[in-house]
Specification:
By secondary structure, the chain is an all-alpha fold. 84% of the residues lie in helices and 0% in strands. The chain has helices at residues 3-27, 32-62, 64-90, 100-108, 113-134, 143-166, 171-196, 201-231, 235-252. Helix 5 (113-134) runs parallel beside helix 7. The longest helix has 31 residues, at 32-62. The protein is globular. The two termini are 22 Å apart.
Length: 253
């Protein structure tokens, strides 16, 4: 199977967690603390993945200049886009329960489905590109990256679907929305591979660092606050567990 198609399928797999989370959020009621714990664990996995799968590999390929420039650029782009979307109803898109803040967001932006979708794309596209780029070296996908993205997408789909249901959106609208985003994730992974296969190592390093910066900004801006609100004093411990699991997979694979 061509590697570009493999990249797309791996991206689709990680993006499908949004649809899986949406199904759970629509039909089941899970404790907020459990969802927040998944968020905390996923944050730890992502931090490990961007440290060892992205930044370390980017350093080896491009050195400090491209890595530093890309890292800051990715964080700046994400922060600016996230600020815009936050003021249009997507601030609490990863919130694990229908709390007062989520309710206030819905009251202020009763038709925030588009903002939520764009927020999910903002979070997911850098991650999906990373999956595609990981196939360039050695022809094997970065398993840690796929797991990390999957775990970060699951609670986002869950919480957003629950919010859309509360807003009165139909099941067809909600699942169609997340299916489209999952397909976009697969396309982004495929594009990531095609666009940078055979590219200059410095350019690849720069792109990896951009993705790493965007992902770290996303973790701190959206995942960590929501994880802490649900798990409080245990958020750090759970995140460390996620980091350790990802670190072990990275070194043992």
């Amino acid at each position: 199977m061509p590697l570009a198609i493999q990249a797309g399928l791996w991206g689709l797999l990680s993006g499908s967690a949004l649809l899986l989370g949406a199904l759970i959020g629509w039909f089941a009621h899970l404790p907020q603390r459990l969802i927040a714990a998944v968020m905390a664990f996923g944050a730890g996995v992502l931090i490990s993945a961007l440290s060892f799968e992205l930044m370390d590999e980017a350093w080896k390929q491009g050195g400090f200049g491209p890595v530093a420039g890309g890292f800051l650029t990715g964080a700046a782009i994400y922060t600016a886009a996230n600020w815009v979307l936050a003021h249009r109803g997507a601030r609490h898109r990863k919130r694990s329960g229908a709390t007062g803040k989520r309710d206030a967001q819905v009251a202020a932006h009763p038709d925030n489905g588009l903002a939520l979708a764009l927020g999910a794309l903002l979070d997911g596209i850098p991650e999906s590109i990373v999956i595609g780029v990981s196939l360039i070296e050695g022809g094997a996908v970065g398993l840690v990256a796929v797991i990390a993205v999957f775990l970060s997408n699951l609670p986002e789909g869950l919480s957003s679907a629950a919010g859309l249901k509360k807003e009165g959106k139909s099941a067809a609208y909600t699942f169609g929305l997340w299916t489209g985003i999952a397909l976009t994730s697969g396309a982004a992974a495929s594009i990531g591979y095609v666009a940078f296969a055979g590219a200059d190592p410095g350019a690849v390093a720069f792109v990896q660092a951009i993705a790493a910066g965007a992902i770290l900004a996303m973790i701190v801006d959206t995942m960590v606050p929501e994880a802490f609100e649900g798990t409080h004093d245990f958020a750090g411990l759970i995140s460390v567990g996620g980091f350790l699991v990802a670190f072990g997979l990275s070194k043992l694979s």
